[in-house]
Backbone:
């Protein structure tokens, strides 16, 4: 609080004091007091007034500064009324009480909303859990009754399963930290799992996969990584070219990172769109042509990577290739964040 | 032949799983009444248990820890809950593996087989197959004819092995590719042609011709 502002606030005190000085001077003059004596009275009154004024300014200023400091140290600023000292001046107390009331009602609102959100998330989780049971039945039925039709049903149900999985991971995204387990995993296993999941559609479309140096270990969460790789492989399948589609998966290692590189020879991404592919809801030209795109897959990949301390990058040339890099730090501490 | 117990409360999944496992050469016992499941498992004297976690009376976890008191039978948890904590809990209670629903069937079968092999250590893999005087040695990764021997790559061994297993019938190209994918070779149609050509060249070096016949539009036949 600036002193000039304080003066402006207290302008009525100053005016009243001036009126008082004028009145007292007139009174003393009328009592035939001598001018020097009047001046002394005026000077003394002014000194006391100014001293009082300045002390009161300094005190107010310190009070506000202390609260400011508390505020800066707080992560959840709205909790300030819980920790600021209860003022003893009547005016401040009144403001303090108003603030407290406003805060209380806001906190109540927040906790209702949090509860609702939690309920909703739990519902989604249990819904996903329930729907996986019939999905499993259908998959087994297809497996036990192989025909051209069940092969198609199986493909579609796999698609359903992927969407269900996306919904689950989306619901959990904010609380990823509750649900990941960093351990030493073998990338070879994770990649082979993903390829096995997409085997049918890849064989049908006569795709080839080349693996280089993938027998590497790193520290991360296996389930999340598998989900991320699966999203990328599915994109590579979805946006392939009709002939000689292939995917090359290579792992590079350096001192700090293990880098998982997935490159396809598909239709690629326009240079003007590459920066936005990780944005939520962004489908781009390719997505619009394919209809099945939701703009959620890569967004989820990016968010999940951030949560578990990995990095994801894309590079592409239209009509030639798309290359996705997942950078997994070696340092366990970085990973655990 | 191994005996597998399935503890699963969804009837459809249970029945289909039974068919699936029987088709892949296992004996299956279903548990359909969920009282005292642990005792039933112990009494059954099977080789492996597929245990669902969400069950009507007791959870799979409880059953697992009860079984573990007296038996070391391998237990695979099968569940549609995919939560790290659940998985951790399953492993801590003595589960041997944890598979999420909906499972990918080849992956499920492979993991069952893995655990069975690991526990009972009788990998019944033939290491040598002979046909018309040609001997494929899988362990050494070679083929032998009369006194000559020549080395094969892993991919070539797998392809030839599949053809030998299905001798006398026409093997469709798609079946070979499918088999190769299940065995971690991710080939397309062209790569299969290349692999077959290479095998033929090697056979020729050994002095064998027309070992692998091409049936146009259908596949290959030995």
Residues:
């Amino acid at each position: 609080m600036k002193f000039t502002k304080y003066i402006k606030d207290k302008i009525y005190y100053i005016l009243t004091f001036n009126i008082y000085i004028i009145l007292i001077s007139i009174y003393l003059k009328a009592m035939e007091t001598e001018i020097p004596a009047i001046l002394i009275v005026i000077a003394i009154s002014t000194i006391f007034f100014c001293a009082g004024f300045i002390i009161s300014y300094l005190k107010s200023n310190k009070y506000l500064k202390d609260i400011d400091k508390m505020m800066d140290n707080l992560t959840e600023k709205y909790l300030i009324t819980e920790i600021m000292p209860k003022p003893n001046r009547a005016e401040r107390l009144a403001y303090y009480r108003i603030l407290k009331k406003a805060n209380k009602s806001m906190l109540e609102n927040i906790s209702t909303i949090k509860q609702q959100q939690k309920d909703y998330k739990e519902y989604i989780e249990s819904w996903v859990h329930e729907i996986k049971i019939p999905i499993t039945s259908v998959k087994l039925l297809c497996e036990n009754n192989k025909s051209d039709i069940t092969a198609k049903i199986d493909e579609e149900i796999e698609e359903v399963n992927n969407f269900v999985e996306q919904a689950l991971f989306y619901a959990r995204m904010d609380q990823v930290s509750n649900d990941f387990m960093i351990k030493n995993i073998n990338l070879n296993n994770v990649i082979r799992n993903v390829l096995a999941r997409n085997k049918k559609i890849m064989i049908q479309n006569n795709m080839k996969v080349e693996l280089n140096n993938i027998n590497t270990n790193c520290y991360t969460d296996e389930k999340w990584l598998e989900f991320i790789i699966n999203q990328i492989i599915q994109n590579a399948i979805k946006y392939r070219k009709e002939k000689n589609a292939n995917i090359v998966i290579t792992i590079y290692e350096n001192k700090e990172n293990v880098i998982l590189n997935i490159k396809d020879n598909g239709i690629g991404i326009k240079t003007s769109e590459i920066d936005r592919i990780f944005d939520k809801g962004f489908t781009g030209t390719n997505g619009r042509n394919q209809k099945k795109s939701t703009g959620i897959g890569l967004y989820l990949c990016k968010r999940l990577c951030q949560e578990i301390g990995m990095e994801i990058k894309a590079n592409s040339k239209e009509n030639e290739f798309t290359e996705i890099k997942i950078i997994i730090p070696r340092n366990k501490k970085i990973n655990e964040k | 032949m191994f005996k597998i117990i399935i503890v699963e409360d969804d009837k459809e999944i249970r029945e289909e799983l039974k068919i699936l496992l029987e088709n892949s050469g296992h004996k299956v016992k279903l548990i359909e009444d969920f009282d005292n499941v642990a005792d039933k498992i112990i009494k059954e004297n099977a080789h492996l248990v597929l245990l669902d976690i969400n069950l009507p009376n007791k959870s799979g976890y409880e059953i697992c820890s009860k079984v573990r008191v007296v038996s070391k039978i391998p237990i695979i948890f099968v569940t549609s809950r995919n939560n790290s904590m659940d998985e951790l809990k399953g492993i801590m209670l003595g589960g041997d593996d944890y598979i999420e629903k909906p499972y990918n069937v080849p992956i499920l079968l492979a993991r069952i087989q893995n655990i069975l092999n690991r526990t009972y250590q009788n990998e019944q893999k033939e290491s040598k197959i002979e046909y018309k005087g040609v001997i494929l040695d899988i362990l050494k990764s070679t083929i032998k004819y009369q006194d000559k021997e020549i080395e094969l790559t892993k991919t070539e061994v797998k392809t030839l092995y599949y053809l030998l297993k299905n001798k006398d019938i026409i093997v469709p190209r798609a079946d070979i590719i499918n088999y190769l994918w299940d065995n971690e070779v991710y080939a397309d149609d062209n790569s299969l042609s290349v692999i077959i050509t290479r095998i033929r060249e090697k056979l020729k070096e050994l002095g064998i011709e027309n070992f692998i016949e091409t049936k146009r539009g259908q596949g290959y036949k030995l």
Summary: The mean pLDDT of chain A is 88.
